[in-house]
Amino acid sequence: xxxxxxxxxxxxxxxxxxxxxxxxxxxxxxxxxxxxxxxxxxxxxxxxxxxxxxxxxxxxxxxxxxxxxxxxxxxxxxxxxxxxxxxxxxxxxxxxxxxxxxxxxxxxxxxx
Amino acid sequence: xxxxxxxxxxxxxxxxxxxxxxxxxxxxxxxxxxxxxxxxxxxxxxxxxxxxxxxxxxxxxxxxxxxxxxxxxxxxxxxxxxxxxxxxxxxxxxxxxxxxxxxxxxxxx
Lengths: 112, 109
Known about the structure:
Chain A has 112 residues and is an all-beta fold. Chain A has strands at residues 5-7, 10-13, 19-24, 31-37, 44-50, 53-57, 64-68, 74-78, 87-94, 102-103, 107-111. With 109 residues, chain B is an all-beta fold. Chain B is 0% helix and 44% strand. In chain B, the strands form three sheets. In chain B, strands 2, 5, 6, 9, 10 and 11 form a six-stranded mixed sheet that branches. At the A-B interface, strand 4, strand 5, strand 9 and strand 10 of A face strand 5, strand 6 and strand 10 of B.
């Protein structure tokens, strides 16, 4: 079965640069979630979208923005990168109202 | 506010021994509880949902609302069970998952 796809899998950036992470949900899933997992930390919810509209917002810095497109894929845009942004960024998808979120493999972002 | 606590960051057992990973939660409503497993920094994989009351890979978990706990149990641990286990809560007011700090389980031969 198709799973959640994230690209790129690895990304290395310099401080103050920008980064764009992409997430392709499981087919027919209409809800996308973004989580950030720092080294040795548990995943922290950033933001979610349903039908291209922001549905929930967590501890997402103002330097980050995200959107969901008509094909339900989502992009997380990160600007003015800081060393502390180095983390594994997971995307998850689900059907609206469903209890189970399916996670992608993550994008490992390293900020130098 | 919703909060999940996993008191043990590290848990080590021998193969064939019983294992219990503890999870306590704080939430004012009726939460949905999950266990996710992460092997060697791979993607998070759903292991169990409390509403399904199923057993996956020999693991079970029972929601105890009185003790606000959702402990994960397996009677006979296997080496392939070695992984990071996260307990997660989904509240009724939103769809986000709140994770516990995780428990790294090591099953020794």
